[in-house]
Structure formats: structure tokens, C-alpha cells
Design goal:
Length: 429
């Protein structure tokens, strides 16, 4: 009880950059820029690019694939850098890498506004690398910083960032469509928006996230001490199943997340205003799900939570197929986004439980598996569209396959929970 006043006084007297809410909001802004814009701005802009005639649907699929390939490469780089070049990793620590990735996202987004279609695949590839680098490093830096500041629960705000960015880009794209702006103007606006978000992050995310007055390792015991180790015998089997299941999540959501506006516009009457709101609804669900995921009790098994999250996304995809009207797309969009970052949040917690000694490397491996699932999605849809009798049939087949991938992933989590149950009374994270 006697320590509370000193903590409160220290929090009030701390520089504004070191206040927990500022750190959490900086992490949110960083992910809004790197993920909401760097990765997902392409989704609401794709219909505009198609309308401008600067890209075909097949070409758009390959641009999406280039971005997801870049995300995979960025995750692999973050995973292997500590092993291959520890000296470089010490110099280029998390805050420097996150800031560099954000700056790159600004430049690459603005580059998409240039009328140079031959350069677009390379720009989207590099943007994918940057988004992975920012996601992994900003998450690690902010979470450790919040632990050091005594407010780890605020970490959930960080993962609201992608949803906030998606809502911003979705609503902005809707206005641009109403004003008959070309897609190039949209890329330019989103580049400027990303620059503004970068400016908010820059003065906060710097240096090592070490506790005030202690070494960088000062927070390690407190953060690791709450982790319940994996049951004996889980080991490699649990890690492999977790990696596979998480990779299936990448494939499961990506078809709908990439082509949602195109699918909705093709299914609804011409001139309907509804398609412009489905992507912001998805983002709203992402932000809400991220906030809710931090409220789940620590003793709940994350594998059962992941199973439920996959089931919700599979149901959302099925809803878009069996109820292809405005209400169905709206509810499906929101439900698809609701567990989106919750899946990442719970999977990273489970990764820390089953392999705590691996640190950031296993996190990078999971992100790489997720990237592989994303890479498979758009080319698969392009192939199905080519073979199908109609565009609607091709999209329906792609959505069905995505739902099946999520069901398989959910079954893997159920099998893991039954095969290696948590010890009674022990927290899962």
C-alpha cells in the first residue's frame, strides 16, 4: 500500500514520452500505419484501381501476393537476424527497426501513386517487408516498455492499431469513390496519413525498452514468471501444430480480406453505397476484438479461445456465401474482423507458453507461417476465377476453401488442448 503513492507520483512526474498511455497509443499509431495502411490500404483501393483500368483482377491478385511475400520475408529476417548477426541486432534494436520500417512504409505508399505499374510489385513486396518488421518490433518494444512502466495490461491497445488504420482507410476510400478520385490520389492521401502517424510515433519509440533505473533484463523475470510451461511431452509436437494452425489462419482470412469490396460490389446492385462500408466494418471488428481479447482471464486455455476465434471467422465467411445481401456482408465483415488480432494475441501468448526459451525467434516463425498462408490465398483465387464458369462461382469456391482452412486450424487447437491439457490451477499465460 505504501508503494502506491510513489508509483503515482513517479508516473505523474515522468516525461510525457514515458507515460504508459502514451507508449500504448504510440504502438497503436505505429500498427495503424504499418498494417492498416502499409498492408491493408490496397483492399479498399483495389476497386478504384480496377475502375481506373490500371490493373486487372488477376494483376491485383499478384500485387496482393507480392505484399504477402514481403511480409513473409520480413518475418523470416526478424527471426534469423538474432542468430546470424547478433552484433547487428544489438545495434539495430527494436525501436530503430520499427522506426525504419515506418519511414519505409511512408515512402513505399507514396510510391504507389506514381504511374509506373512495372514498379508496383516491387513496392508492394517492400511494403510487406516493412509491415512485418514494424509489427514484430513495435509489439515487442511497447510490451516490454509497458511492463517496465508497470502497466502491461495496456498492451491490448497496441493491437487495436490495425483496426483503426483499416477504418481510416476504408472511410477515406469511400469518400474518394463518392468524389470520383483516381486510385493514385488515394495512394498519395494514405501516404500522407501514414507520415502523420509516423510523426506521432517518432518521439516516443526510441532507445531500449528497459525499466527506469534498471538494466534491460530487469523485466524478464516478471514477464516470464507468469508463463505456465507446456506439459511434459508437448515439446516439438505442440510447436509444429501451433505453427501449422496459425499458418492456416493466414490462408483462411486473406481471401475475404483482400477481395471483400470486389466481391460485395459484384453481388449487390450497381450503385449501392453499402460496399464502401464493409471494409470499415471489418476494421471496427478488428479494433473491438483486440480490446476485448485483453479482458479474458489468464487461466483460460488460449487453445480453446483460438478454436472459438477460428470458428467465428469461418462462420463469417460462410455467411457471405449463403447470405450474399447487404446485411449478410455487413455482419460477415464485422465478424471476420472481430477475432482478427485476437488470434494473433492469443497465438503469441501460446507460443510463449510452449517455447518460452525461444523468445522472438518462435514469434518470427509463426509470423512466417502466417505469411505463407497469405501468399497462397490470392493466387489460389486467381486460379479458381480462371477455371470457374463465372466470377461469382470462382469467389464462392475461394471463400469455401478459406472457411475449410479455418475449420482445420480450429480442429488442430482442439486436438492440442485434449492431447496436452493445462495443469489444474495453472494459468495459460
Amino acid at each position: 500500500m505504501s508503494s502506491s503513492p510513489s508509483l503515482s507520483t513517479a508516473s505523474i512526474s515522468a516525461p510525457w514520452q514515458d507515460r504508459p498511455w502514451i507508449v500504448a497509443l504510440a504502438g497503436m499509431a505505429a500498427l495503424a500505419g504499418a498494417m492498416g495502411i502499409g498492408r491493408f490500404a490496397f483492399t479498399p483501393l483495389l476497386p478504384m484501381m480496377l475502375n481506373d483500368g490500371v490493373v486487372t483482377l488477376a494483376g491485383g491478385s499478384w500485387l496482393a501476393t507480392a505484399n504477402y511475400l514481403g511480409y513473409l520475408l520480413g518475418a523470416l529476417a526478424c527471426m534469423t537476424l538474432p542468430w546470424l548477426a547478433p552484433q547487428v541486432r544489438q545495434r539495430w534494436h527494436a525501436s530503430r527497426l520499427a522506426r525504419a520500417g515506418l519511414l519505409a512504409t511512408v515512402v513505399l505508399t507514396l510510391g504507389m501513386a506514381l504511374p509506373i505499374p512495372a514498379a508496383w510489385p516491387a513496392l508492394r513486396l517492400a511494403a510487406g517487408v516493412a509491415s512485418a518488421v514494424v509489427f514484430l518490433n513495435i509489439s515487442a518494444w511497447c510490451m516490454l516498455r509497458l511492463v517496465a512502466l508497470g502497466q502491461p495490461a495496456l498492451g491490448g491497445l497496441i493491437f487495436c492499431g490495425p483496426g483503426v488504420g483499416i477504418v481510416l482507410t476504408g472511410l477515406s476510400a469511400s469518400a474518394m469513390v463518392a468524389w470520383h478520385w483516381p486510385a493514385a490520389a488515394g495512394w498519395a492521401v494514405f501516404g500522407v496519413l501514414c507520415a502523420l502517424l509516423c510523426g506521432l510515433v517518432w518521439p516516443v519509440v526510441q532507445g531500449l525498452p528497459q525499466p527506469v533505473g534498471q538494466g534491460a533484463s530487469g523485466s524478464a523475470p516478471s514477464s516470464a514468471g507468469s508463463v505456465s510451461p507446456a506439459p511434459a511431452g508437448a515439446g516439438l509436437g505442440a510447436r509444429c501444430m501451433l505453427t501449422l494452425a496459425y499458418g492456416l489462419a493466414g490462408l483462411g482470412y486473406i481471401v475475404t480480406a483482400t477481395f471483400l469490396p470486389v466481391i460485395a460490389r459484384s453481388a449487390l446492385p450497381i450503385g449501392s453505397a453499402w460496399p464502401d462500408f464493409f471494409w470499415p466494418l471489418f476494421g471496427t471488428g478488428v479494433a473491438m476484438g483486440a480490446a476485448l481479447s485483453t479482458r479474458t482471464p489468464a487461466h483460460w486455455d488460449r487453445r480453446w479461445l483460438l478454436l472459438a476465434a477460428y470458428a467465428v471467422q469461418a462462420g463469417a465467411i460462410a455467411l457471405s456465401v449463403v447470405w450474399p445481401v447487404a446485411a449478410g456482408f455487413a455482419l460477415g465483415s464485422w465478424l471476420l474482423g472481430l477475432p482478427f488480432t485476437a488470434i494473433t494475441f492469443y497465438a503469441l501468448q501460446e507460443a510463449r507458453r510452449v517455447w518460452p526459451a525461444a523468445g522472438d525467434s518462435f514469434t518470427g516463425m509463426l509470423t512466417a507461417a502466417y505469411g505463407l498462408g497469405q501468399i497462397a490465398g490470392p493466387p489460389l483465387v486467381a486460379w479458381l476465377l480462371h477455371r470457374a464458369g463465372s466470377e461469382a462461382e470462382g469467389f464462392a469456391q475461394g471463400l469455401g476453401l478459406a472457411a475449410v482452412a479455418l475449420v482445420v486450424g480450429a480442429c488442430l487447437y482442439g486436438a492440442m488442448a485434449l492431447r496436452w491439457p493445462l495443469k489444474a490451477g495453472r494459468p495459460s499465460l
